[in-house]
Design brief:
This protein has 17 helices and eleven strands. It is an alpha/beta fold and 432 residues long. The protein has a seven-stranded mixed sheet. A four-stranded mixed sheet has the order 2-1-3-4. Its EC number is 2.1.1.-. Residues 116-144 are annotated as: Disordered. Residues 133-142 have a biased composition (Basic residues).
Length: 432
């Protein structure tokens, strides 16, 4: 088994049809590939068995979560170099099984099988989602998916997110801190919604209560926040009580489709629509439209993806689906806008802020890495590894324009056509 790295590099390049962009270190200590950059470490032959039995991203994810794969050096640089192999290759070249079907590559595939060692494959890591029941995006299954992602532990989220406890893209200015940027994001949303003393705000997917608290404390709004996570709700209620705002803010464990007490003056939906799913997105838009009074405003803050040449080929990212956001789906920005319009909304403003999310994610990764041992103790080694990879890879995806994030300001414009929207909603840079 001497010099496993050279053998593995040669086989991988034959199967992938190009050179590996990072150096590789194998379980026997051997190395191969370009020097001077990050090193992809294959700690155990189990990693190969995982990738053979689950070709593509899911096999790689299982190897990473289990600790069979690792990166030495700059993780962002490694992901950036590997993105051409992992995410930006033509669809027909992404699967190892496709390569195995090519007679010219079968010999390489057989050599890879011998190098992988005894079969069958290892069991999936314990952190992989299991037991999903029912059709996607039913109330029961949505609740299971939300619990998998958000009921990891409030202390873990506090470590990653920092004191703001805001789990969505911040809004940055030069030299600001993460807390500054998250406060500015919440205030931006409040100003776009034109919140005033006594306004009723519904915060859909309220998380740990940060938007609800900001709206009540800074603008005098009366807020209802809904979440499907009991851990989030308990945390938010304590924060509200500690600030003496229980007379202005109510947190419910409730599906947004079951909110009975509209109409509201305004609705904020911040990083929640990604959980809704394509089959339910029109229902989501219709429900929020029905919960607003005429003239009321919706601020929908949502991650988007680039449109596919053939939208029928879109698939949920396997790593995200299995380990991070079960059943989460991203829509192109244009589809979100069209759906809001079809529900009756007048979309008055769309602000694209994808670079802001890359900055936010890099700060979250830094928080996690700075307190790594405590993060592992609060969850598990696998869970901490999931979050490090997910956030770092997402940062690279935002930077490379594979995904974006947008704020849609929409109005339930009354029959009169009076939207009460300023003639100029934003100020752009002046010419110099």
């Amino acid at each position: 088994m001497a010099d496993a790295a050279s053998r593995l590099t040669t086989l991988a390049e034959e199967l992938l049809g190009g050179p590996l962009p990072v150096r590789l270190r194998a379980w026997d200590g051997s190395e191969a590939g370009p020097a001077g950059g990050p090193v992809l470490i294959v700690r155990d032959r189990r990693a190969l068995r995982r990738m053979i039995w689950k070709p593509g991203e899911l096999g790689l994810a299982r190897a990473w979560v289990a600790g069979d794969l690792d990166v030495e050096g700059d993780l962002y640089e490694a992901l950036d170099r590997l993105s051409g192999l992992l995410w930006e290759r033509p669809e027909e070249t992404r699967s190892l099984l496709d390569a195995v079907r090519d007679p010219k590559l079968r010999a390489a595939a057989r050599s890879l099988l011998r190098l992988a060692g005894p079969l069958p494959p290892p069991r999936p890591p314990a952190e992989e989602v299991r037991g999903r029941s029912g059709n996607r995006h039913t109330r029961r299954r949505d609740k299971q998916a939300i619990s998998h992602h958000y009921d990891v532990g409030n202390d873990f989220y506090a470590l990653v997110l920092g004191p703001s406890m805001v789990y969505s893209c911040a809004y940055w200015t030069e030299g600001g801190t993460l807390e500054d940027a998250q406060r500015d994001k919440l205030d931006l949303i409040a100003r776009k919604l034109n919140l005033k003393e006594g306004d009723r705000l519904l915060d859909v997917g309220c998380g740990w209560g940060s938007m609800a608290l900001h709206a009540a404390r800074e603008y005098g709004a009366r807020v209802v926040g809904v979440t499907l996570s009991r851990e989030q709700a308990a945390f938010a209620r304590k924060r509200i009580a500690d600030e003496g705002l229980t007379d202005r803010v109510e947190i419910r464990v409730q599906d947004y489709r079951d909110v009975p007490d509209g109409p509201y003056d305004a609705i904020s939906s911040i990083g929640m629509a990604e959980h809704v799913g394509e089959v339910r997105y029109r229902e989501y838009a219709d429900t929020l439209y029905g919960l607003l009074k005429p003239g009321g405003r919706l601020l929908n803050h949502q991650i988007s993806r680039r449109p596919e040449p053939d939208e029928a080929t879109y698939e949920i990212d396997p790593f995200i689906d299995a380990y991070v956001f079960p059943d989460g789906e991203l829509a192109p920005m244009g589809r979100t806008l069209s759906t809001l319009e079809a529900a009756g909304f007048e979309v008055r403003d769309v602000e694209a802020i994808r670079e802001h999310y890359a900055l936010t994610l890099r700060r979250w990764v830094a928080n996690l890495e700075r307190d790594w041992h405590r993060a592992v103790g609060l969850t598990s080694p696998g869970r901490a590894r999931i979050w490090r990879l997910y956030m770092a890879a997402s940062a690279v995806s935002f930077e490379r324009n594979r995904i974006g994030v947008n704020q849609f300001l929409a109005v339930r414009t009354p029959v009169s056509g009076k939207s009460d929207t300023a003639l100029r909603t934003r100020v752009w840079n002046e010419r110099t």
